[in-house]
Amino acid sequence: MKNKTRVVLNLDAVIVAVTRHHPRILTVSAKQNLPAIPSGPLHREDATLERSLRGWIEEQTGIEVGYVEQLYTFGDIQRGLPGAPNNPRSISVAYLALITEEHPTTSSASWINWYELFPWEDHRNGIPDILTKHLRPALATWAGNNAERNERVITAFGSDNRWDGMRVLERYELLYEAGLVKETSTRDALPESISGVPMAFDHRRIASTALGRMRGKLTYRPVVFELLSDTFTLLTLQRTVEAIAGVPLHKQNFRRLVERTRLVEGTGQRTNSPAGRPAELFRFRSEVLLERPRTGIGVPYR
Fold it and tell me: Cα torsion for 205, 193, 123, 216, to the nearest 10°?
């Protein structure tokens, strides 16, 4: 008879904000001073997983989050601590939370730019040099003459004129398998300026899952408005979408899209700008949720 497996259930939170056109996630200090996402075990007395999660977030960061959705469940056997066979199996239920940035009130919490974790994902100013000069050549060396590996590299990392922004998790997992990121602790790992800032445990994998989910949801749900204040300019809306999507958008085409989908409405107010023409302020039209099933921005990724 096999020994019963002990299981530990944790709740993890990827808390996202966009500040000054930079996508950021909230982190806390973990082992070896590596950043980690807020997490903690399920409290037995909490009626729901989400209530327990919110408690851990507030305790570790001092921030009370609003919009929260379940992201994914992570339970690979490699997540557990190595050593004796009676170590518990570690299962994490991860959540995605979207807020406007607040200053954390605990000393261990801080914000980090998403593209410091995944520098190859930011194409707003063109194709990153680290992608063409470092990552693709390193992956080509790793793949060698292996047809299956080469196909996976092409699928995940594409080419200069074919980039699928939603394959974030696939790209990170491929870099991990190739031993090119610091979490693998191999001599093939590339410098952080190329392979990104490492995170504790498997939290960068969880963060990459969240970024892919966010990019996907942009196309069919109005999640971007959770990252904005109640009123905003169309330029701020565009820059926020670009920050998450990681690609530049044509200004006039974007505005025509927003007008056609009637996602926003004017407030009749304008910004107070000491220089230049004051911009009109808009708000999200919540009625759009009742008008049609798909209410996203529709950002092209391929």
Answer: 10
Q: How high is the pLDDT of residue 1?
A: 47
How far is 114 from 242, CA to CA, in rounded Å?
13
pLDDT (average), residues 47-58: 92
Answer with the residue of higher pLDDT: 83 or 12: 12
CATH classification number, 220-291, choose in 3.90.76.10, 2.40.170.20, 1.20.1270.10, 1.10.10.10: 1.10.10.10
Q: Determine the distance from the C-alpha atom of residue 190 to the mean position of all C-alpha atoms in its chain, rounded to a whole number.
A: 22
pLDDT of 263 above 90 = yes
pLDDT band of residue 79 (cuts 50, 70, 90) is low
pLDDT of residue 75: 85
C-alpha distances (whole Å) from 101 to each of 30, 118, 227, 292 are: 21, 20, 8, 30
**Encoded amino acid at 95, one letter:** Y
CA distance 37 to 207: 8
Q: Give the CA distances from residue 68 to residues 15, 98, 107, 200, 213, in Å, rounded to whole numbers and listed in that order.
A: 9, 7, 24, 23, 13
Its pTM stands at: 0.92
Q: Which two tokens stand for residue 132?
A: 């063409």
239 in Cβ contact with 20 (< 8 Å): no
**Cα-based distances in Å from 295 to 66, 102, 116, 223:** 20, 27, 30, 9
